[in-house]
Amino acid sequence: MSLVARHLEAHGIPTVIAGSARDIVEECGVPRFLFSDFPLGNPLGRPWGVEMQRRSLGFALDLFETATLPRTTVQNPARWSDDASWKERYARVDPEQADRLRRAGERRRAEQQRARSEGRARSD
Amino acid sequence: MTTSHRTFVSYIDRTREFYRAQGYERPYQWAHFEEVPFARLQKPLADSRLSLITTASPWHEAGHDPGSLRGSKKVWSGASSELPDRLYTDDLAWDKQATHTDDVASFLPLSHLRECAIAGRIGGLAGRFHGVPTDYSQRRTTDLDAPEILRRCREDAADLALLVPL
Fold first, then answer.
1. C or N: which end of chain B has fewer Cβ atoms within 10 Å?
2. Which residues have CB under 8 Å from B143's CB, separation 6+?
3. What ipTM was predicted for this assembly?
């Protein structure tokens, strides 16, 4: 998505990204970014949290007017929850699950190989 | 207050370790640029037409081939006039333990943007919103999908774009 923002911007269309993967967006480098420290999936706010979503959108729109330089990141002041344990859990590699993950990788590679050989995957 | 590490999740670190545990030795190479383009607004926000862009897919794509790297996914567009009841997000990397995507407005703020247009905060909402596939291949995003999104934004006479990746 960051690559799309850069392309639009390079062709004269100002952009704002509203998202939660701060490191990925900032490493790519985008003009304007509203960072919400939420689990991936609901960048505007909690499901059914209409007021939270409205406020987040407002901060994103503000960025069109306030940013004067590229790489402008503003952090949404909203908190997802008092419980931040989701940050520790996401895609965390638990040593006890090492075998399961290794086997899952082997299955995935085999399936992708099958897809390639059957011409189902769009290849480079 | 103090901290010994980043307080936000580093998805680059987390993804690298996750796939290493699955036996992928060469880490994914994330896009990284020194130069960042910057376009100034040509007219006030209150007079500007905005395009909304998502990484979600139409619901009817549910059940697409799980073995394919990208499946049949391509740039798509939907009418901005109505918030879809559902969009397909299962193929995207979001936190399926911590949350869900049953409330489309939590990642596709069409209804909230319509309110902003009525209130005069933005000039208007383009007639369509657009979807862009999240692709392992940065080349395909850069060479195929980004130019197609630009073409559609221009066709819709959009002045600005709000991109909301899941």
1. N
2. none
3. 0.92
